[in-house]
Write a structure and sequence with these properties.
With 1791 residues, the protein is of the alpha/beta class. It has 58 helices and 66 strands. The strands form 18 sheets. Strands 51, 52, 53, 54, 55, 56, 57, 59, 60 and 61 form a ten-stranded mixed β-sheet that branches. The two termini are 56 Å apart. Its cofactor is pantetheine 4'-phosphate.
C-alpha cells in the first residue's frame, strides 16, 4: 500500500500538504474545446477551497449536504474541495439542460436533504427560477462560488474530521429509477486511492488524460482525487468534447505523452467508429501504459478492434487494463497486472446461462468470450462468489453474485437503513462471515481471475433461463448495418403473465429511410439463432434518442418504462400479435396439404422452400401456436415441443411422406429447415420405390416379446392381479344401458386383441381369438351399498385375477347408485392393452354411445388386426442388422454390475417379490409446473425429461447411490399405422443416471436429455428380450434390471383430461353425451417397488406414487410425496443448485427433525468438578462401601483419604490443571484410587491398560507428552523408556502415605480436563479424546430423571478403564453413593464366573456391550436363573444391539423388574448420546438397532454429505451437538477441525460421528452402522485401517485388508486378508500383530490370497473376497449324469427347453442360458409329461436337476397338492421368518 495512506487521515490534510510542500506544482490542466488550456497549482486550488470553506462555515452549512451544479472545470474542483474544507458533504450533480427534466435532481435533493446548492454566476440565472417553481427545490439556499474573494481564505477554520467522517455522497445513476446516495468516508477514499496507485503502478512521473464526468465516481475519484493522491499531473476534458469528437482524447494523449487514460467499453468502441485512418496516423500512443476500462462489461471484441486499429499509432495491447469496481466499493475493486495482456477465456454460453462455468477449447456458436477483470489475490480485499438465494459460497465452477469486504466498502446508502442492511451487511450462510457488500453483479473466479458476467437485476429470465442483456445487445448490434452498435437495450416486459423480450434499438442516421422491416426481421432471426429466444417486440428509434445517464450509460429501466408507456421516439415498432394462435390460424395450419408425390413433382430448387412452408404450418399446428410465431431456423424445443407432440409430428411425416424420422431426432430440437432437409433427403433417396412397404408375413398367433413377458409373470403368480389395468369412472345423469352395452360390443368386434386368450401349444405360448364375440358385461344394483362397501366391491372386481387361457380379458362392470349416477369399471389384463389403447377405447366409446342412443347405424368395419403386423415387424427388426445394433447399444449402456435400487424400506424385503400395493396421489401447483416447463424449454428438454430427472434425484437422495436405473415406458408404436390399434405395444426402456460428479440440476438435466434421446433412438429392442440377453443374476425378491418406474401419462388424444382419469383423480371431469368423472379405486397392485406416474391437467401436475405396501408404509410414501413436491419447487426456483443441495424436507418436517426432536433449552451445567461432587457424596455417606475388589473394600471416607494422599503427593510432583498423568495399573482398588487422586491433584488421567502391547503404550506416552506416570512395580519392566516421572503405587506407598489425608484445595475448574482416552484411528494412529469435568458431570445429571440411581445400587466396573464405558460405571456409582465392584480381568472373560459375581454381589446396575451380554445369557442358560439376581437395569452401549437376541432374556425375566436400556454413545461425546428403554414388544417388532432419542442436553442430527438434514426414514450421518462434546483431539488440530464442526442449526459445535442412522417416524433413532467400515467388536470401536497399517509393517506383507464378518446376527469377527511375498501362516501374522495391537484388535482369521479383487473403477471389491471357512464345496465343472429315471426325464426336458445336447444334474438352469420363456417351456413339459403339478416358482428355488428332482420326489411322498404362489410364498416366509429381522439389520448396517 502506498505510503501516502499512512500519513494522512483526510483528503483535507492531503491537499493542504501538497499546497504547502509542492505549492507551484501543476495539479490539473483543463483542455478546452477551442484547443486552449488552463492550468492550476495545488496552492491555487487550496486557497480557493479555503475561501469557500470559510463561506460555508459562515452560513452554518457544516454537517449539511450541498448540491454541486457545475460544468466540468476548475470551479467544480473548488466547490468539491471547498465542501471538504467546510465540513460539508458534497452531492455532485450535473446542471440540468435548458428545459430539461428536473425529476432526478428533485429526487436527489429530497433524498440527501440538501439545504444548499453551489454553482457559478453563469449557471444560476438559468436554473434559479426553475428550482423555485419545482416542489422540493424551492427552499434550496444558493451559493455562487466563482465570485468569492480569496481574502476569505484567511478566516477558514480547519474542520474537526477524521478517517470515519463522511466526505461526500455519490449518487448512483445506473439502472435503478430511484437514485441512492452512497456514503463515502475519508477512510474509504484514501484506502481505495492507495489501492489504485499500487495496482495502476502510478508514480510522480505519471501523466494522465481523462474525459470522464467529474460528478461520477470514475471521473471524480479516478480523474481528480487519484492525481492528488499520487502527486502527478492530470489533464481534464469535458465529456461532451470527447463524445462529439473522440479523436480529441487520443490527440491529447498523443500530445501530452500521457501514460494513463481510460473509460468504459463504449469509449473505445466510439474511437474505432469515429476516428478516421488519417487522424489515427497522426497520433503517437506509444507512451500509453495504462488504458484502463471498466464501469460496464468489457468486450473482448472491443479490445481486439481498438488494439488492431490503433497499432499503427503505437498502441500496445498490453496497455489495456480491465478492472472491476462500483460506487458502493468507492470505485476500484480488482485489476490485473500492469503491462500484461488482458486475460481472455472462452466459456460455454449455455453453461453460463445456467450459472455453470465450463471452459471450452474450440469456440462455437454458443461460446461466450470473457475478459478477466483482475486477479483476486491482488485486490487486498475479500471477494466471495455467492449464491444470491442461499447465501452460500459458490463452487469454483459456478456463477454467483460478487460480494466484497474490506476498507474500501462504503458506509451504506444515505437515509436508507433497510437497503443499507440488505446491500452492505450481508453474511455468508455457512460460516457467518461478513459483513459483505452485495454488488448485484454476477461473476465467477477461475484460475484466480475475476470474470463479470452481468447484473443480477438486469438479468432477463425467460422460461427459466438467464439471458444477459449485454449479450443480446451485442448480437443485435452485429446483425445489420443499419443498427447503431452500442446504442440499444434488451429488456423484459410482462405479457399475459409471462416475461417477453423487447429490443429497443437506435438506427444509424444514414439508414433512417432504409427498409426497417428488414432490420426487425434480421434482429429476430439473429436473437433466435444465437440465443434460441423469441423477440416479442422490436422498437427501432431515432438516432441519439435512447435514454442514457450523464456518463453515457444506456438506462435500460427507462427504455422499458417508455416502451410500456409509449415515450420512445419510434421509427418502427414490430410486436407479435400474441402468444396463442387463433382458432382460424390453427385450422389453416392443419389444413394445408402436401404429400410425397406432390413434393417430387416440384422442381428440385423449389422443394426445400415448399416443404419448409408446409412443415412450418404442421409444426405450428402440433405446437398449438400460430405459424407466424415460429421461425424456420428456430429450434422446436424453444417453442415447447414435448415427446407426445414429437410422436404426433413423427406420425404426420410418416403418413405424408413415407419417411422414418427417429423420435430422438425430433426431441433433439431441430429447426423446421433442418427437419425439411432430413425429410427431403429420404424422399429423394426413395423416389423409385413407389411408396410400397416391404411385404411381411403375419403370424396372427405369435406373441410380441412384451406379451411373452407378461404371460410368464402371470404364470409365475397366477393368482396375482399385478397386471390388471382397472379404471373406474362415475357417470352422472341418466344412462342408456342398452346403448352403453352395444357400444362395448362394437369395440369388442373392432379390436381383435380384446378377444384374445393365451395358451401353451406344442411347447410354445400362442394367442388365440375367441370364436364368439361374447362381452363380459355385469350390471349390479349398488343403491343399497355404503361408500365403504362400494369401494370394497369395486376393489374385489378390479383385482380379480385373469386366467389368460380361459377368461375374457376385458371385463365391464356397471354398478347403479341411482337413476342419476352409475359407476363404470373397466378391468383388462395388460397383455391386451396399454394406456394408449385405453385412450383409444375411451375415445371410441364416447363417440359410439350417442350414435347407439340415437339408433344410428355404425360401420364396424374389418377388425383392426395390425397388432399382428407389429409383432411380425418386431421379429423382422430383431433378426436384422438393426436388431444387432440395438442390442449392442443396450449392452454397452447397461454394462458392468447393474445397481440394485436400495431404498430405505419400512420392512425387510420378502424372499419372493409380492405385488401388494397402494397408491398416494398429490398435486404440483401451477406456479411450480409453469417453472418446470420453462426450465425444460430453456434447456432444450421436455417436461418428461425434467420430471424424470427430478424423480432420479429423489431416488439418489433417498438411497445415496450415485448409479441408478429407472424404467420408463415408451409408446412402442414405431409407425403411424398403429396409432388406433388396441394392443400391448408399450416397451419400457432402462434409463441410467450418474451422480458421481455431483452435478447441478441443470447439468444433470443435460445428462438425462442425452440419455433419454439415446434410449428413444434404441427403444425398439424389447425389454424382456434384453433381460434374457443381459442375463442378470435372478432373484425372486425383486424385478430384474430396475425396481422403480417413471411414467408421464399424456394421451395422444388428450384434449379433455383423459390423463387425469388415468391417475384416478376425482376432480377430473369429461363432459359430453357420456360424461365421466374420476373415481379412485382402493387397493392397488405394485409391479415395482415404486412407480411415479404424473400427468398435466389444467395447468398443474397430477402425480401418484404406486408402491409395494409390503415394503413401505403409507406414511412413508406420504412424506415422499411432500419431498418430491419440495424438490420440484426447489428445481424450478434454482436449477443451477447442485442436486445434492436441492431442498427435500417440507418446512414442517425440517422443523421437526432439527428442533422438535431436540431440546436445545435443557441445561445441566455445573461449576463442580467430578472429585468435588465425590467429596460431597463422602460427606453424605462416609461409611458406606464405595469400592470393592475380590475380598478388599473401601468406604467412601477411606477411598477419599487414600485419594487425597495421592493427590497431595502428585501436586508435589507438579501435577495441576490440564496436566496429563498416565495411569497403568491392573484392575484393583488402585485403579479407582489412581483416578480420584489424579483428579483431586487437578490433573487429567490417561488410561494405559497394561494388557496393551508395549508399542501402543509407548505411542500414547509420547503422543500425550506424559510427565507423570502412575503404575505398579510389576509393570516397570514392560514400560518403554520415557522421560515421565514414574510413580509405582506399591513401591512408593510409604512416601505417599505420609502426605495429608485432607481434601486438597481444588485448583481445577469444570472446564479443565478430566481424562484423555485414546481411540482407534483410521490412519493407523490412535487419537486422544479430551474430556472435561463438565462433560461427565452433566451426563449423570441429565440422565438422572430416567435412572434415579441411589445409595442402594451396586455397579460393576466390568470394562477396561481405557474404554469410556468405564467412566459411566465409575461415576454412576460414586456420585450417587452406590457401590462399585471392580471385576477381575479373568472373571470378565469367563461368562459363568461373571454371572456368579453379579448374583453374589447383588449387582443392580449392569453395563454391557451386546456381545458380552449374549455370552452372559448363554451362561445363565447353562447354570439356570438365580432367584437372587437383583438387577434393576441392564444398560447397553459400545456397539449395535440386535434386539431379537434379547428374546431369551425376556422369556426368563420380568421386564418390569429389570429394565433393559439401549444407549448409543461415542467417546467424543462423553460416553452416551441417546436413551431407549426396551420392552418385549421392541424385540418382537423393532427392526434393527433402535437407539432412542437424545439425552436432554444433547442434540442429534441426521445429515447428508452436504450437511443438510435427511428425511425421516432415510439414512444419513449422525451428528451430535450439545454439552457432551469433547474439547477435541490431543495435538490433532486439523482432525479436530474436521470432526468437530460449526453447528449450522444452533449455537456451538457438532461432532461428525461417522455413524449411519435414520430417524423413525416416532422420532426414535435407528443405528445402521459405520460409514467408513469402522466396526465395534466387544464394545471396542476399531478402525480397520489401524490393523491394516500394522499388518503392512510386516516385511513380507505387500497389502492388507481387514473385514468384519457377521458370523451370527450381531456377532462380528475380524478377518484379515493379506497379499505377501512368501507363504505366511496365520500363527506368524497373529504373533506379529499381537506385539503391536491390543487383543481385541487382533483378527481371528488370517487369509493369504494372490491379489485383491477390484471393482470396475479400480477399488477393492470387498464383496468378492472369499468367505472365511465357508464350508462350501467347490462347484464342479465336470458333467454329472442323471442317477435315476426322474433325473433322466428332467434332463431330457431341460435339453429340449434350452436347446443344448447335454445337461448335468448339478448344472444351474440359468447358468446354461435359461430365461423366463425357456423356464416356462420346461415347467409346462414337466407338468404335462411327469404329471407333477407345482408352481413355477419352485424352479427358481431349485435351479439344478438334482435339487428339483429331490423336491419333486418329496412331493410324491407327501402327495402335495397344487400350491398357489401365495401359499408357496407363505411357506418360504415361515422358513425364513426367524432370520428376516437379523438380515435386514445386517443389510442396513452395510449401507
Amino acid at each position: 500500500m502506498a505510503e501516502t495512506s499512512t500519513i494522512f487521515h483526510t483528503l483535507v490534510e492531503l491537499l493542504r500538504w501538497r499546497a504547502v510542500e509542492q505549492p507551484e506544482q501543476l495539479a490539473y490542466t483543463f483542455l478546452l474545446e477551442d484547443g486552449s488550456e488552463v492550468s492550476y497549482t495545488y496552492q491555487e486550488l487550496d486557497q480557493k477551497a479555503r475561501a469557500l470553506g470559510a463561506v460555508l462555515q459562515g452560513v452554518g452549512a457544516t454537517g449539511e449536504r450541498a448540491l454541486l451544479l457545475y460544468q466540468p472545470g476548475f470551479e467544480y474542483l473548488v466547490a468539491f474541495f471547498g465542501c471538504l474544507y467546510g465540513g460539508v458533504q458534497a452531492v455532485p450533480a450535473y446542471p440540468p439542460r435548458q428545459n430539461g427534466n428536473l425529476d432526478r435532481l428533485q429526487a436527489v435533493v429530497s433524498d440527501a436533504e440538501a439545504k444548499f446548492a453551489l454553482t457559478t454566476s453563469g449557471i444560476l440565472p438559468g436554473i434559479e427560477q426553475r428550482f423555485a417553481d419545482t416542489p422540493g427545490l424551492q427552499k434550496i439556499q444558493w451559493i455562487v462560488t466563482d465570485t468569492l474573494s480569496q481574502q476569505l481564505s484567511s478566516t477558514w477554520v480547519e474542520p474537526v474530521i477524521g478517517t470515519e467522517s463522511l466526505a461526500f455522497l455519490q449518487y448512483t445513476s445506473g439502472s435503478t429509477s430511484a437514485p441512492k446516495g452512497v456514503m463515502l468516508s475519508h477512510g474509504n477514499l484514501l484506502h481505495n486511492l492507495a489501492l489504485m496507485q499500487e495496482r495502476f503502478g502510478i508514480t510522480k512521473q505519471t501523466e494522465g488524460v481523462i474525459w470522464l464526468p467529474p460528478y461520477h465516481d470514475m471521473g471524480l475519484i479516478g480523474g481528480i482525487l487519484q492525481p492528488l493522491y499520487g502527486g502527478y499531473h492530470m489533464s481534464l476534458m469535458a465529456p461532451v468534447s470527447f463524445i462529439t469528437k473522440p479523436v480529441r482524447w487520443l490527440e491529447a494523449i498523443s500530445r501530452k505523452g500521457a501514460t494513463l487514460g481510460g473509460g468504459p467499453n463504449f469509449a473505445y468502441d466510439l474511437c474505432v467508429q469515429k476516428v478516421t485512418p488519417e487522424q489515427r496516423d497522426a497520433l503517437d500512443l506509444s507512451k500509453w501504459e495504462n488504458a484502463f476500462t471498466g464501469a460496464e462489461p468489457v468486450r473482448p471484441e472491443t479490445l481486439a478492434k481498438f488494439a488492431d486499429y490503433f497499432a499503427p499509432a503505437g498502441f500496445r495491447k498490453e496497455a489495456f487494463y480491465p478492472c472491476y469496481g462500483l460506487a458502493e466499493a468507492t470505485l476500484f475493486v480488482t485489476g490485473g497486472v500492469r503491462q500484461e495482456r488482458p486475460i481472455v477465456r472462452d466459456y460455454d454460453g449455455e453453461g453460463l446461462e445456467q450459472n455453470q462455468v465450463i471452459l471450452v477449447d474450440a469456440p462455437n456458436d454458443t461460446t461466450r468470450t470473457l475478459v478477466s477483470s483482475g486477479r483476486v489475490a491482488l485486490c487486498e480485499q475479500q471477494i466471495a462468489i455467492v449464491n444470491p438465494d442461499t447465501r452460500i459460497t459458490c463452487a469454483e465452477d459456478e456463477v454467483g453474485e460478487i460480494w466484497v469486504s474490506g476498507p474500501s466498502v462504503a458506509q451504506g446508502y444515505w437515509n436508507r437503513p433497510t437497503q443499507t442492511a440488505e446491500t452492505f451487511a450481508a453474511y455468508l450462510e455457512q460460516d457467518g462471515a461478513g459483513p459483505f457488500l452485495r454488488t448485484g453483479d454476477l461473476g465467477f473466479v477461475h484460475e484466480g481471475e475475476l470474470y463479470v458476467t452481468g447484473r443480477l437485476k438486469d438479468l432477463i429470465i425467460i422460461r427459466g433461463r438467464n439471458h444477459y442483456p449485454q449479450d443480446l445487445e451485442f448480437t443485435v448490434g452485429e446483425c445489420h448495418q443499419a443498427i447503431a452498435a452500442g446504442f440499444g437495450a434488451a429488456v423484459a416486459v410482462e405479457v399475459d403473465g409471462e416475461e417477453r423480450l423487447v429490443i429497443v434499438q437506435e438506427v444509424e442516421r444514414t439508414h433512417r429511410k432504409s427498409n426497417l422491416e428488414e432490420v426487425t426481421t434480421a434482429i429476430r432471426q439473429a436473437v433466435a439463432k444465437h440465443h434460441e429466444l423469441q423477440v416479442y417486440a422490436v422498437v427501432l428509434i431515432k438516432p441519439a434518442s435512447i435514454p442514457k445517464t450523464s456518463s453515457g450509460k444506456i438506462q435500460r429501466h427507462l427504455c422499458k418504462e417508455r416502451f410500456v408507456q409509449g415515450g420512445l421516439d419510434v421509427l418502427l415498432q414490430s410486436t407479435l400479435d400474441g402468444v396463442t394462435a387463433s382458432t382460424e390460424d390453427l385450422a389453416v395450419n392443419q389444413g394445408a396439404g402436401l404429400n410425397r408425390e406432390q413434393l417430387l413433382t416440384l422442381p428440385a430448387v423449389e422443394r426445400q422452400m415448399v416443404l419448409e412452408t408446409h412443415l412450418l404450418e404442421k409444426a405450428a399446428g402440433v405446437l398449438k401456436i400460430a405459424a407466424t410465431q415460429l421461425a424456420n431456423d428456430q429450434s422446436l424445443n424453444a417453442v415447447g415441443l414435448d415427446s407426445l407432440m414429437a410422436v404426433e409430428l413423427k406420425n404426420e411425416l410418416e403418413e405424408c411422406f413415407g419417411v422414418s424420422v427417429p423420435l430422438a431426432r425430433l426431441l433433439d430440437g431441430p429447426s423446421v429447415a433442418e427437419l425439411a432437409g432430413d425429410v427431403l433427403e429420404q424422399v429423394v433417396a426413395n423416389a423409385g420405390d413407389g411408396r410400397s412397404s416391404t411385404p411381411i408375413t403375419v403370424h396372427p398367433n405369435e406373441l410380441s416379446y412384451g406379451q411373452r413377458a407378461l404371460w410368464f409373470m402371470q404364470r409365475l403368480a397366477p393368482e396375482s392381479s399385478a397386471y390388471n389395468i382397472a379404471r373406474a369412472v362415475s357417470i352422472p345423469g341418466a344412462l342408456d344401458l342398452a346403448a352403453l352395452k352395444r357400444s362395448f360390443e362394437v369395440l369388442l368386434s373392432r379390436h381383435p386383441q380384446l378377444r384374445m386368450n393365451f395358451v401353451m401349444q406344442d411347447g410354445e405360448t400362442v394367442q388365440k381369438m375367441q370364436e364368439y364375440n361374447v362381452l363380459y358385461f355385469v350390471v349390479e344394483d349398488a343403491t343399497h351399498l355404503s361408500e365403504g362397501e362400494l369401494a370394497e366391491r369395486l376393489s374385489v372386481y378390479a383385482h380379480r385375477p385373469f386366467d389368460l387361457a380361459r377368461d375374457s380379458l376385458l371385463r365391464v362392470y356397471l354398478l347403479k347408485r341411482s337413476e342419476q349416477e352409475h359407476i363404470l369399471l373397466l378391468s383388462m389384463h395388460h397383455i391386451i392393452v396399454d394406456f394408449w389403447s385405453l385412450a383409444v377405447l375411451v375415445k371410441e366409446l364416447r363417440e359410439l354411445y350417442p350414435l347407439m342412443q340415437s339408433g344410428s347405424s355404425v360401420e364396424v368395419g374389418q377388425p383392426n388386426d395390425s397388432y399382428g403386423e407389429h409383432v411380425a415387424r418386431q421379429a423382422e427388426l430383431l433378426a436384422g442388422v438393426r436388431g444387432e445394433e440395438l442390442l449392442a447399444y443396450w449392452k454397452k449402456q447397461l454394462g458392468g454390475t447393474l445397481p440394485l435400487l436400495n431404498l430405505p424400506t419400512d420392512r425387510p424385503r420378502p424372499p419372493v417379490q409380492t405385488y401388494r400395493g397402494d397408491s398416494r396421489s398429490f398435486r404440483v401447483t401451477k406456479d411450480v409446473t409453469h417453472q418446470l416447463k420453462q426450465l425444460a424449454q430453456a434447456n432444450g428438454a421436455t417436461l418428461y425429461m425434467t420430471l424424470l430427472a427430478a424423480f432420479q434425484v429423489l431416488l439418489y437422495r433417498y438411497s445415496g447411490q450415485d448409479d441408478l436405473l429407472v424404467g420408463s415406458p415408451t409408446a412402442g408404436r414405431s409407425s403411424a399405422k398403429f396409432a388406433d390399434t388396441v394392443g400391448y405395444f408399450v416397451n419400457p426402456v432402462v434409463l441410467r443416471a450418474d451422480f458421481r460428479d455431483q452435478p447441478s440440476f441443470s447439468e444433470f438435466l443435460k445428462q438425462v436429455r442425452l440419455t433419454v434421446l439415446a434410449a428413444l433412438d434404441h427403444q425398439d429392442y424389447p425389454l424382456p428380450l434384453l433381460v434374457e440377453k443381459l442375463a442378470p443374476k435372478r432373484d425372486l425378491s425383486y424385478p430384474p434390471l430396475f425396481q422403480a418406474m417413471f411414467v408421464l401419462q399424456k394421451s395422444h388424444l388428450d384434449s379433455d383430461g383423459l390423463t387425469g382419469l388415468a391417475l384416478q383423480d376425482s376432480t377430473v371431469r369429461l363432459e359430453g353425451a357420456l360424461p365421466f368423472a374420476g373415481y379412485p379405486l382402493a387397493g392397488q397392485m405394485a409391479q415395482f417397488d415404486l412407480t411415479l406416474t404424473m400427468t398435466e391437467h389444467d395447468g398443474e401436475l397430477l402425480a401418484s406414487f404406486d408402491y409395494n405396501s409390503d415394503l413401505f408404509d403409507a406414511a412413508t410414501i406420504e412424506r415422499m410425496s411432500g419431498h418430491l413436491t419440495e424438490l420440484l419447487r426447489g428445481i424450478g426456483e434454482a436449477p443451477e443448485r447442485k442436486v445434492s443441495q436441492m431442498p427435500l424436507l417440507t418446512p414442517v418436517e425440517r422443523e421437526q427433525v432439527l428442533y422438535g426432536w431436540n431440546d436445545s433449552q435443557a441445561n445441566f451445567a455445573s461449576e463442580l468438578c467430578l472429585h468435588e461432587r465425590f467429596e460431597q457424596q463422602v460427606e453424605r455417606t462416609p461409611h458406606r462401601v464405595a469400592v470393592a475388589y475380590e475380598e478388599q473394600s473401601l468406604t467412601y471416607a477411606e477411598l477419599n483419604e487414600r485419594a487425597n494422599r495421592l493427590a497431595h503427593y502428585l501436586r508435589s510432583c507438579g501435577v495441576g490443571p490440564d496436566v496429563l498423568v498416565g495411569l497403568c495399573v491392573e484392575r484393583s482398588l488402585e485403579t479407582i484410587i489412581g483416578v480420584l487422586g489424579i483428579l483431586k491433584a487437578g490433573g487429567a488421567y490417561v488410561p494405559l491398560d497394561p494388557t496393551y502391547p508395549p508399542e501402543r503404550i509407548a505411542f500414547v506416552l509420547e503422543d500425550a507428552s506424559i510427565s507423570v506416570l502412575l503404575t505398579q512395580e510389576k509393570y516397570l519392566s514392560i514400560l518403554p523408556e520415557q522421560s515421565a516421572r514414574v510413580i509405582a503405587l506399591d513401591r512408593d506407598e510409604d512416601e505417599i502415605a505420609v502426605a495429608s489425608g485432607d481434601n486438597p484445595p481444588s485448583i481445577a475448574a469444570a472446564n479443565h480436563l478430566a481424562y484423555v482416552i485414546y481411540t482407534s484411528g483410521s490412519t493407523g494412529r490412535p487419537k486422544g479424546v479430551l474430556i472435561e469435568h463438565s462433560n461427565v458431570v452433566r451426563l449423570l445429571d441429565a440422565t438422572d430423571h430416567w435412572f434415579q440411581f441411589d445409595e442402594e445400587d451396586v455397579w460393576t466396573l466390568f470394562h477396561s478403564y481405557a474404554f469410556d464405558f468405564s467412566v459411566w460405571e465409575i461415576w454412576g456409582a460414586l456420585l450417587f453413593g452406590g457401590k462399585l465392584v471392580v471385576v477381575p480381568y479373568e472373571v470378565s472373560r469367563d461368562p459363568q464366573a461373571f454371572y456368579g459375581l453379579v448374583v453374589q454381589a447383588g449387582v443392580t446396575v449392569l453395563n454391557q456391550t451386546p456381545s458380552a451380554f449374549r455370552q452372559l445369557l448363554a451362561a445363565e442358560e447353562a447354570v439356570g436363573v438365580s432367584p437372587d439376581l437383583a438387577l434393576r437395569y441392564v444398560i447397553f452401549g459400545g456397539e449395535a444391539l440386535d434386539l431379537p437376541s434379547l428374546s431369551p432374556w425376556y422369556e426368563r425375566h420380568d421386564e418390569q423388574k429389570t429394565v433393559l436400556v439401549n444407549m448409543y454413545g461415542i467417546t467424543e461425546t462423553t460416553v452416551h448420546v441417546t436413551y431407549r428403554a426396551l420392552s418385549m414388544q421392541d424385540v418382537q417388532t423393532a427392526v434393527g438397532s433402535v437407539i432412542g432419542g437424545p439425552i436432554p442436553d444433547l442434540q442429534v442430527y441426521v445429515l447428508d454429505e452436504q450437511g443438510q438434514p435427511v428425511p425421516i426414514g432415510v439414512p444419513g450421518e449422525l451428528y451430535v451437538g450439545g454439552a457432551g462434546l469433547a474439547r477435541g483431539y490431543l495435538n490433532r488440530a486439523e482432525l479436530t477441525a474436521e470432526r468437530f464442526v460449526q453447528n449450522q442449526f444452533g449455537p456451538g459445535r457438532l461432532y461428525k460421528s461417522g455413524d449411519l442412522a435414520r430417524f423413525l417416524p416416532d422420532g426414535q433413532l435407528q443405528y445402521l452402522g459405520r460409514i467408513d467400515h469402522q466396526v465395534k467388536v466387544r464394545g471396542f470401536r476399531i478402525e480397520l485401517g489401524e490393523i491394516e497399517a500394522a499388518l503392512e509393517q510386516h516385511p513380507s506383507v505387500r497389502e492388507a485388508l481387514v473385514v468384519a464378518w457377521d458370523e451370527v446376527p450381531g456377532e462380528k469377527r475380524l478377518v484379515a486378508y493379506v497379499v505377501a511375498d512368501r507363504s505366511l501362516t496365520g500363527g506368524d501374522l497373529r504373533a506379529y500383530v499381537k506385539e503391536r495391537l491390543p487383543e481385541y484388535m487382533v483378527p481371528s482369521v488370517f487369509m493369504q490370497i494372490d491379489a485383491f479383487p477390484l471393482t470396475g473403477n479400480g477399488k477393492v471389491d470387498r464383496r468378492a473376497l472369499p468367505a472365511p471357512e465357508s464350508g462350501r464345496r467347490d462347484v464342479s465343472t465336470q458333467y454329472a449324469a442323471p442317477k435315476n429315471e426322474l433325473q433322466r426325464q428332467l434332463a431330457i426336458i431341460w435339453q429340449e427347453a434350452l436347446g443344448i445336447e447335454q445337461v448335468g444334474i448339478y448344472d444351474n438352469f440359468f447358468d446354461l442360458g435359461g430365461h423366463s420363456l425357456s423356464l416356462a417351456k420346461a415347467h409346462h413339459a414337466i407338468q404335462e409329461r411327469l404329471l407333477h403339478t407345482f408352481s413355477i416358482v419352485e424352479m427358481f428355488k431349485h435351479p439344478t436337476i438334482d435339487a428339483l428332482a429331490s423336491f419333486l420326489h418329496q412331493g410324491d411322498e407327501v402327495a402335495e397338492p397344487r400350491l398357489g404362489v401365495e401359499q408357496l410364498r407363505d411357506k418360504a416366509s415361515r422358513k425364513k421368518e426367524a432370520l428376516n429381522r437379523q438380515k435386514q439389520f445386517r443389510k442396513d448396517r452395510r449401507k
